[in-house]
């Protein structure tokens, strides 16, 4: 553990050290088109892989005939589950997901067979020529029935409830004011812009080298190698350029498939999904159905909260247990309440598998508890801000799990600041059509347009929770060059767009300033260095940032010993004579504990982060059209490492929350996805996303490197309920479901 | 197969192409110009935007044969003499990209916008880039970068004249 020690850093702050808005080291490559995304990789002798997927959400496989595909020109290999060299199953938390379907399929889009061919189109056509004889079986598509109806078919032998996490504290479940509601969150897609892709190259040692866009190289490797029947050291992964992630690359997609085809054909194999296949190729955000009851005193102080949170995990486990844990432990939000009965369930169905997406588990609960807080405000005659301020946690409060909030959590002050921001000017009748909801597709002159303002608050656990051995590794090497000492930083951490490469270099410049280091080179992320953990849970600045800082400190310690022994030498001379100086360090955050299986009690979280949003919307109540006029946010990040990059995270996270509030939903009917394209699955455009006003606070967390607080996820939580509240304020409708559809407003 | 002549980033190519081949596949798979990415296959995201005879076009919605005789400018041909175009500099320095997958298309679409409106308001930038999706940035820094790029471009033209 590294305590807070910013004095050395402050003193040695270089022009592009921490706290500076240093430009991205990959920025020039990205604006010139030279940056190599995984889909850009090319070898002259490579062939192309394609995947045959199940058209049915639930079916038995009677037989598979690969003959017609094998007979086609240009086809090098056709593989089924019988060709998996090792363990036929993989999975992040439970190894039960088939590499290729064995005797049954459990969701539409489940991989069944693979083809390698000399052209991508030939590979796709050959895959389509494979004959699979299915016996369609009843699909379990209702999460409530899956969880609670004993007569419901089982998706897996273990039963349909993959985790039930209760939280129990207190015993008073009566209050003068009671509000209740049932809420629903639709299935959101991460919709990163660069679809899944990778290149597997067979190696002379019988192993394989995989160039892949992913979030966590080592957990990929540790799933791939057993499936290939290879020792881990013969499966080497290198991070290829990643076109966004947001949780969707935490599970495997085509990794094992490409390696299997490469090992079978002896040729490099490239697989690139199109957008439609991408919708079937990764997990989505769990859709949720939630029942809440809040009891309070007449002056609006919470007495109790009861909640049932039902999360549809779809056909396989993925990271569902962690999603359930987050939803349960953060199920009432950042509010003080002494009496709680929360039950969070993750269930199997034959719907698409769901797993990690930015804010996992916390996002769904946040929509429900914030909707409840607005109901309570109304019932008590208080403003939405006042009801939240009156119940807000602060440093010294306890979560419903009993965990002490031991770092600053100035929620009441954040709300006060948010409320003080000026409001944007109103849009009147007869305004420019482009300023009205619906823009140029508006068919009125704005007579039905109403303004609404809403607030939302979110709390997110940063880093991995519940006793997970969470660590990151960094190797730092300082060597002499003709231009002076130069640092190489090597980690396996995945740069997925968030700007970790920038922050790593900033940390190295700061910590190694007294060695005269100005130039820092980041060695490409691969599995030849220890694990960095996942680029998820807003954890990389904390964890890999912490690892780089610790490794730099170790190098600096050796340097100081050398300097003390040779007082006449300059830093450059010391490095020249005694270098290179290299140290590798693992960094761990403070240990966390599991949640008690019956009461949910336990110090399960590493760090907690808060964000608050205010949304201003115009709604055409007759047409059901919504325009978000402004989003304002206050977030406490502990310590700003790079302001421009941080603002970008808050903008982007807020935009994804806007999408969930108003437009984004994977529409699943009877287990089938109806909208697997960007024509029908809508993400916010530049016209949908308004300008933002924000305030960033720096109340340091003493346990974290530099006092920082993970920042990527919190804004995704609070923007959704703020926008929903604003639309309710404009329309007077209850709107218990997101995304809010035009018919929910105009035709309730 | 039809034979086409197309100039890409100043280099003239003669290629035999299937009539159904898309321009973006010609660029990426035949000419090796992978700086123009594919994001959606359905003309929604704009990641594959290039300049076709001076107008922006989504290269997934243009057949290679339609580009016969045309001049194509991609993101890879924008920097001149090793110097970044002012829009490229602005996107880099204003942090108008994260994963960067939308960036080539954003910059090419912005280039077309600035030809029509060299000093666009924030609203005009938003109207002009409606056809390009970004999933990372929330667009705020993109708007700022386009306006800064516009200023730099007009400043350059003024000083050159």
The CATH architecture of the largest domain in chain A: 2-Layer Sandwich
Q: What ranges of chain A have pLDDT less than 50 throughout 5 or more consecutive residues? A: 1-13
As for the number of domains of chain B, it is 2
Annotation field: number of helices of chain B: 5
CATH topology of the largest domain in chain B: Ubiquitin-like (UB roll)
SS-derived structural category of chain B: alpha+beta
Strand content of chain B: 5-15%
If helices are DSSP runs of H or I spanning 4 or more residues, what is the number of helices of chain A? 18
The oligomeric state is heterodimer
User: SSE string of chain B, helix = H, strand = E?
Assistant: EEHEEEHHHH
Mean pLDDT of chain B: 95
- Main beta sheet of chain A: strand number and arrangement? 7 strands, mixed
**How far is the first residue's CA from the last residue's CA of chain B?**
47 Å
User: Structurally, how many domains make up the residues of chain A?
Assistant: 3
Strand order of the largest sheet of chain B: 2-1-5-3-4
**Percent range of helical residues of chain A:** 25-40%
CATH H-level homologous superfamily name of the largest domain in chain B: Beta-grasp domain
Largest interface, C-beta closer than 8 angstroms, per-chain residues = A-B, 57 and 57 residues
What can you see in these coordinates?
The complex is a heterodimer of chains A (about 750) and B (about 160). By secondary structure, chain A is α+β, with helices and mostly antiparallel strands. Chain A folds into three domains: about 5-35 and about 470-590, Aldehyde oxidase/xanthine dehydrogenase, molybdopterin binding domain (Aldehyde Oxidoreductase, domain 4, 2-Layer Sandwich), CATH 3.30.365.10; about 40-135 and about 190-280, Aldehyde oxidase/xanthine dehydrogenase, a/b hammerhead (Aldehyde Oxidoreductase, domain 3), CATH 3.90.1170.50; about 370-465 and about 595-745, Aldehyde oxidase/xanthine dehydrogenase, molybdopterin binding domain (Aldehyde Oxidoreductase, domain 4), CATH 3.30.365.10. Helices cover about 25% and strands about 25% of the residues of chain A. Chain A has 18 helices and 30 strands. In chain A, helix 10 (about 360-380) runs parallel beside helix 17. The radius of gyration of chain A is 26 Å and the shape is globular. Chain B contains five helices and five strands, in the order ββαβββαααα. Chain B has a five-stranded mixed β-sheet with strand order 2-1-5-3-4, covered by helices on one side. Chain B has helices spanning about 25-30, 85-95, 105-115, 120-130, 140-160, and strands at about 5-10, 10-15, 50, 55-60, 70-75.
């Amino acid at each position: 553990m590294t305590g807070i020690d910013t004095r050395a850093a402050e003193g040695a702050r270089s022009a592009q050290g921490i706290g500076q808005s240093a430009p991205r080291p990959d920025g020039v490559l990205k604006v010139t088109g030279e940056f190599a995304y995984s889909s850009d990789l090319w070898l002259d002798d490579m062939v192309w892989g394609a995947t045959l997927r199940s058209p049915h959400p639930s079916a038995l496989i009677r037989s598979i005939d690969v003959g017609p595909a094998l007979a086609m020109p240009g086809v090098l290999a056709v593989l089924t589950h019988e060709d998996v060299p090792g363990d036929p199953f993989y999975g992040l938390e439970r190894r039960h997901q088939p590499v290729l379907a064995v005797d049954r399929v459990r969701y539409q889009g489940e991989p069944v067979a693979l083809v390698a061919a000399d052209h991508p189109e030939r590979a796709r056509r050959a895959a389509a020529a494979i004959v699979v004889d299915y016996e369609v079986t009843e699909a379990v598509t209702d999460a409530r029935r899956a969880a609670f109806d004993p007569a419901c078919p089982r998706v897996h032998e273990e039963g349909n409830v993959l985790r039930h996490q209760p939280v129990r504290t207190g015993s008073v479940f009566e209050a003068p004011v009671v509000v209740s509601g049932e809420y629903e969150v639709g299935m959101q897609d991460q919709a990163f812009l660069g679809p899944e892709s990778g290149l597997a190259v067979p190696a002379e040692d019988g192993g394989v080298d995989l160039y892949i866009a992913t979030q966590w190289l080592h957990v990929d490797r540790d799933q791939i190698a057993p499936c290939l029947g290879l020792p881990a050291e013969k499966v080497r992964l290198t991070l290829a350029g990643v076109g966004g992630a947001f949780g969707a690359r935490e599970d495997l997609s085509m990794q094992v498939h490409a390696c299997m085809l490469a090992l079978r054909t002896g040729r490099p194999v490239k697989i690139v999904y199109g957008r439609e296949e991408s919708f079937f190729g990764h997990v989505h955000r769990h859709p949720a159905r939630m029942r809440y009851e809040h009891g309070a005193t007449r002056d609006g102080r919470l007495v109790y909260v009861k909640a049932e949170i039902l999360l549809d995990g779809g056909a396989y486990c993925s990271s569902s247990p962690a999603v359930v844990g987050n939803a349960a432990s953060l199920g009432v939000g950042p509010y003080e309440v002494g009496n709680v009965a929360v039950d969070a369930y993750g269930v199997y169905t034959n719907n698409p598998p769901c797993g990690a997406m930015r804010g996992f588990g916390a996002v769904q609960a946040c929509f429900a508890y914030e909707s409840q807080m607005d109901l309570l405000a109304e019932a008590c005659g208080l403003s939405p801000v006042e009801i939240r301020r009156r119940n807000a946690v602060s440093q010294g409060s306890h979560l419903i799990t009993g965990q002490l909030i031991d770092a600053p959590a100035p929620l009441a002050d954040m709300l006060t600041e948010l409320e003080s921001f000026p409001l944007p000017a109103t849009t009147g009748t007869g305004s420019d059509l482009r300023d009205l909801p619906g823009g140029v597709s508006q068919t009125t002159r704005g007579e039905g347009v109403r303004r609404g303002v809403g607030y939302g608050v979110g709390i997110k656990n940063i880093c991995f929770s519940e006793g997970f051995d969470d660590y990151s590794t960094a190797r730092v090497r300082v060597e002499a060059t003709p231009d002076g000492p130069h640092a190489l930083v090597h980690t396996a951490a995945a740069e997925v767009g968030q700007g970790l490469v920038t922050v790593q270099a900033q940390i190295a410049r700061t910590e190694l300033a007294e060695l005269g280091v100005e130039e820092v080179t980041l060695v490409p992320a691969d599995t030849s260095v220890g694990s960095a953990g996942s680029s998820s849970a807003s954890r990389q600045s904390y964890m890999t940032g912490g690892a780089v800082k610790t490794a730099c400190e170790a190098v600096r310690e050796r340097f100081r010993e050398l300097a003390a022994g040779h007082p006449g030498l300059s830093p450059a001379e010391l490095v020249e004579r005694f270098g290179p100086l290299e140290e590798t360090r693992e960094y761990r955050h403070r240990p966390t504990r599991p949640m008690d299986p019956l009461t949910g009690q336990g110090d399960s979280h590493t760090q907690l982060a808060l964000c608050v949003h205010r949304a201003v919307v115009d709604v055409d109540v007759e047409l059901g059209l919504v325009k978000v006029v402004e989003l304002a946010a206050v977030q406490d990040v502990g310590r700003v490492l790079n302001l421009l990059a941080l603002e970008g995270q808050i903008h982007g996270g807020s935009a994804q929350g806007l999408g969930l509030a108003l437009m984004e939903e994977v529409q699943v009917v009877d287990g089938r996805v109806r909208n697997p394209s960007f024509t029908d699955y809508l993400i916010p455009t530049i016209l949908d996303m308004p300008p933002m006003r924000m305030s960033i606070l720096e109340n340091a967390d003493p346990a974290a490197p530099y006092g920082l607080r993970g920042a990527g996820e919190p804004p995704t939580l609070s923007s959704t309920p703020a926008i929903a509240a604003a639309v309710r304020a404009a329309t007077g409708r209850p709107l218990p479901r997101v995304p809010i559809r035009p018919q929910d407003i105009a035709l309730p | 197969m039809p034979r086409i002549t197309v100039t890409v980033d100043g280099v003239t190519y003669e290629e035999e192409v299937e009539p159904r081949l898309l321009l973006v596949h010609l660029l990426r798979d035949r000419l090796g110009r992978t700086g123009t990415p594919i994001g959606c296959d359905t003309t929604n995201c704009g990641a594959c935007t290039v300049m076709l005879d001076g107008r922006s076009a989504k290269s997934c919605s243009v057949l290679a044969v339609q580009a016969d005789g045309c001049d194509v400018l991609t993101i890879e041909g924008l920097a001149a003499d090793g110097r970044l175009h002012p829009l490229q500099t602005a996107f880099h320095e204003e942090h108008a990209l994260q994963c960067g997958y939308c960036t080539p298309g954003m910059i090419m679409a912005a280039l077309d916008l600035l030809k029509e409106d060299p000093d666009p308001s924030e609203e005009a930038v938003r109207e002009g880039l409606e056809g390009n999706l970004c999933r990372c940035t929330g667009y705020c820094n993109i708007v700022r970068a386009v306006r800064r790029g516009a200023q730099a471009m007009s400043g350059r033209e003024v000083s050159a004249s």
